[in-house]
Structures are given as C-alpha cells and as structure tokens.
Amino acid sequence: MIDPSIHLKLDQMLAAQSAQAQATAQIEHAITALTRGLSALSDDLATQREVLAKLAEAMSAEQDGGEMRDLIRRIEASLTQIAGDGRRTLAALTGLPQAVADAVADGVRLSKSGE
Question: How many CB atoms lie within 10 A of CB 98?
C-alpha cells in the first residue's frame, strides 16, 4: 500500500525546488547586473587614468606643477588599484552562477535521496 503522506512529501519537495529555482534566477540576475556595472566602472576608470596621465604629462612641462603633478600621479595609482580590484571581482563573479547552480543541483539530489 502507498503511504498517504508520500503526496505531501512530493508536494513539499516540488515547492522547495521551485523556491530554489526562483532564488537561483534572482541571484543570476543580480550577478549579471553587478557584472555589467563592474565592466562599465572598469571602462570609466581606464578613461580617468588616461586623462590623469595626460594632465600629469602636461604639468611636468610646467616648472611649478610639481605638487599637483605628484597628486595626480597618486590618484592615477589609486585608480589603477581600483581597476585591478574590479577585474578580480569580475573574475570571481563570472564563475558564481555555475557554483550556485551546482549547489542547487546538489540540494535537489540530496532531497530526492532522503538524506
């Protein structure tokens, strides 16, 4: 005879799978938006670094531009560091959707096996 609670268990599993799929979709959407934002930020930082480099170059031709030139070079170095951090973050985020999908699949397998 079939256990009458089996239908309830199956309904619970399906509801959990549906909730996991929705959560995964939301996470993937957020990661995509964040990835786009970081890519745009990286492009903006590159442009800013180029402008600062040109300003520093122009100021180096001026005899009294030393302090301002040094400040611009420090800002340029900071932007370079920020851009590098953004590239590393972007690289880390790129693999995240697959890691989430793998974790959800593992959860579904475990729920099906009753562990």
Answer: 10
